Q: What sequence folds into this?
């Protein structure tokens, strides 16, 4: 299977540190991390997360936090005013609606859980799927911009919408490889398969790539 072969090859190329899921195993930490990582680099999100978590390391603290202070702590992640608003509002809504926090949501059937997550401020389909995949142990694959572009170029998907590409990837990537696939396709997009000027000639999986073979 082409998708499995590509992911397994990338697993041999990239260091195992890439697969550190510790920040993503707790549902609330996963929510915070994923919102911070929106439209920025992993490095910038990491700095913002560490700064924020030193002072507001649980949902109760973040729900009662001052927006200006949170915004200053996460400035490296970009869009700090917007993201601080999302984080505080989502924290308050979770505390108000769910006695068991996000863990209570993740116990529900996948479709229902995804729908409830996407009601939270700052949570779209990709963020909801990250929480379901990494914190909820569901066999789904989150599709961000990198995954969307890379999977279409490789020939793993052809859909023109995120939901279509997601369905296609889940049809060709074995369940146990989907979380790895998400992270590895993102990394491949950052290092080689860039939206503009992709480095096709030195890409480690170019022999499997539909786009490269058609150049």
A:
């Amino acid at each position: 299977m082409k998708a499995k072969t590509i992911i397994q090859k990338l697993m041999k190329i990239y260091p195992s540190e890439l697969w550190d899921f510790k920040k993503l195993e707790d549902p609330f930490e996963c929510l915070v991390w994923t919102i911070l990582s929106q439209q920025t680099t992993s490095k910038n999100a990491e700095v913002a997360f560490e700064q924020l978590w030193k002072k507001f390391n649980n949902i109760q603290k973040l729900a009662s936090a001052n927006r200006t202070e949170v915004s200053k702590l996460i400035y490296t992640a970009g869009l700090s005013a917007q993201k601080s608003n999302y984080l505080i509002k989502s924290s308050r809504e979770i505390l108000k609606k769910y006695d068991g926090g996000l863990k209570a949501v993740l116990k529900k059937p996948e479709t229902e859980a995804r729908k409830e997550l996407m009601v939270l401020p700052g949570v779209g389909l990709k963020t909801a799927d990250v929480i379901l995949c990494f914190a909820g142990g569901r066999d789904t694959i989150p599709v961000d911009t990198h995954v969307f572009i890379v999977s279409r170029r490789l020939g793993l998907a052809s859909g023109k919408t995120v939901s279509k590409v997601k369905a296609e990837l889940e049809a060709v990537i074995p369940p146990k490889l989907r979380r790895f696939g998400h992270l590895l396709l993102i990394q491949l997009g950052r290092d080689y398969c860039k939206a503009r000027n992709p480095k096709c000639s030195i890409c480690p999986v170019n022999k499997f790539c539909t786009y490269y073979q058609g150049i």
